[in-house]
Specification:
Layout lengths: L8 E6 L2 H12 L2 E6 L2 E5 L6 E6 L21 E4 L3 H11 L2 E2 L8 E5 L5 E5 L2
Parallel strand pairs: 1-4, 5-8
Antiparallel strand pairs: 2-3, 3-4, 6-7, 7-8
């Protein structure tokens, strides 16, 4: 019999927990849970899977898109939006950078302040 398993959160490693937490709080508008120098959490207002940030002393920014020998992303966030232009402007105002490489229409790849790629999409 399979036990009940519930995904409680996604954890992003960073060398700047307070900075990355503040970025995603601005981007998503979620409330802060734990707030420690090396560990912080954000929780969505309607419950569900949260986002956490863990201090990594040797954090290396991923390269997007990665080539041979580059630090590759290990995870990325997909964020559904109703309007790419409006959401993109909001992401940039929050501190994101639009990635140079964009793989497909209807999706825009941004980089958070620690270099993690995330996608805004409408499709």
């Amino acid at each position: 019999m399979t036990p009940k398993l519930t995904l409680a959160g996604v954890v992003l490693g960073t060398d700047d927990v307070p900075g990355l937490t503040a970025f995603y709080r601005r981007l998503l508008g979620w409330r802060q849970g734990a707030d420690e120098p090396e560990w912080a959490t954000l929780r969505p207002p309607d419950g569900g899977t949260g986002l956490s940030f863990q201090f990594e002393a040797h954090h290396t920014r991923p390269t997007w898109p990665a080539g041979p020998g580059d630090q590759q992303m290990m995870v990325h966030l997909d964020i559904h939006v109703d309007d790419l232009d409006t959401a993109g402007a909001h992401a940039t105002a929050a501190g994101a950078t639009l990635a140079d490489f964009q793989p497909q229409a209807g999706v825009r790849v941004y980089l958070d302040p620690s270099g993690h790629p995330f996608c805004l999409f409408t499709v």
